[in-house]
Amino acid sequence: MPSAQPATPPATPPGLEPSLPLPSPCLSYWHRTTRGFPHLNANENNPTPETADYIIIGSGISGALIAFSLISSGVPGNEIVILEAREAVSGASGRNAGHVRPDAFRGYAAYAAVHGPEQAKKIIVEERKVLHAVDEFVRKYNVPCDFDLTTTFDVCLTPEFAAYEAKSFEAYKAAGGDVSHVQFHDGDEAKRRTRVPEAVAAYEWPAGSSHPAKLAQWLLGSVIDKGAQLWTHCPAIAVMESEHSEYRWDVRTPRGTIATQKVVHSTNAYAAALLPHLNGYITPNRAQAHSLVPTSAFSAKNAFASTMSLRYSLHHFYSIIQRKGDGTIVLGVSRSNPELSAETLAIRESFDDGAFNQEIVDDALKRFNIMFSRDGAESERHGEGLDHAWTGIIGMTPDSVPYVGAIEELPGQYICAGFNGHGMARIFTCAPGLAKLMLGGSWEDTGLPECFQYGKNRLVKAVRKGQKGSVW
Ligand SMILES: Cc1cc2nc3c(=O)[nH]c(=O)nc-3n(C[C@H](O)[C@H](O)[C@H](O)COP(=O)(O)OP(=O)(O)OC[C@H]3O[C@@H](n4cnc5c(N)ncnc54)[C@H](O)[C@@H]3O)c2cc1C
């Protein structure tokens, strides 16, 4: 039986061997606060059905929202099977830093260098559309995912980074980019608004935060209520040409083989395990986040009302959101950080989301205290401070934008993966867009930037340009 590979895969850059999700992921703050989800281990011991019209591989926000979008477009729920290698939402969607944060201008120059100015503008506009899409969706369906529509600050912590931001802002504006929703705060005003004594300048624009696991779980619960079937702890291990003449593909799992017409790879950084021609074109990058119980200086009326990205440089930054209900602060850290040891930096390229790194914890807490230093700050009481640290795997692509669309060389197979750490700011238009394509729509119908469309040309271009990792 031939395996599902295109005839002439382009030469791939060397990298980590593709992998299925590893069996013992750690729990994030989001996982720890949603252990009661009734479908967490759905069908964990049951044999799979023999056939399904649609198989969606991956139960993250991509997979769950594709299922939701298909059903909303009239596909009967009972024609959809979702396969998940571990418990439901055990990937990045259940272990991120909680931001639904559109880029407002900062990435423009980097995107323009790879995709040209028009596409770069579209990429940034798209993220703003996603914020509105999430807000609208959550309100329409009353989704209990703690979505908080607020503003966010890009806080410039060095004059050099302030200069970089000013240049990006002007470049985006000069290209016709809309910055009418972005406010600039300089010097003392930036310090006052952000409460960061080191702030040199800050930009503020609308953004949100959510409990990402609750959002994904709500989507899964909703599609299951409409007849979709979720198989957890059930990795797809191969997609082969079907042995049944009336089906195109056989999806093999340890608990049975399912014959199907359409397969969706919403498998994030793991995509190349089933699509070997993507080896090197979707790569894992391990990220770490932390939850903190605030001291009284950041509790009640002193809580942060906005989210923040606090930046020493483009690649050295920290992020915070503070949750409305329990006041938990989620502290994210950049994957590059000049202060970390070479050993710690080296383990970023990994599929291992089973543990966390202490050096990163120490750096994040040290920086949090420096960034929000106050005179006469009280010491932490027992129960305050670091609550938990966790890791997750981000799927990177060489041109920094996701792969969305039909895998033309494998008719009936589709991909929606590679969000480069921006999934919450991208999936809410990409997943419905993919559902449209699956139901016969054109790329124009998706409304997505053309550069998001999967095509072998993107892989070939990446090889030609020597792009081996995301610009982020
Ligand atoms: C620490 C961290 C912080 C982040 N912070 C942010 C943030 O603040 N804002 C933001 O926008 N983005 C953030 N991200 C990125 C964001 O979480 C991702 O872009 C997004 O969750 C990707 O969603 P997904 O559904 O595509 O992938 P995932 O949520 O990873 O889902 C893929 C699923 O597929 C399953 N799977 C893979 N292979 C198979 C297989 N063969 N068979 C069965 N199942 C399989 C996996 O187990 C997984 O559950 C962060 C990520 C991390 C790790």
Automatic annotation (TrEMBL):
One of its GO terms (cellular component) is cytoplasm. SUPFAM superfamilies: FAD/NAD(P)-binding domain. Gene3D superfamilies: D-Amino Acid Oxidase, subunit A, domain 2, FAD/NAD(P)-binding domain. Pfam families: DAO (PF01266). Coiled coil: none annotated. Residues 53-437 form the FAD dependent oxidoreductase domain. This is FAD dependent oxidoreductase.
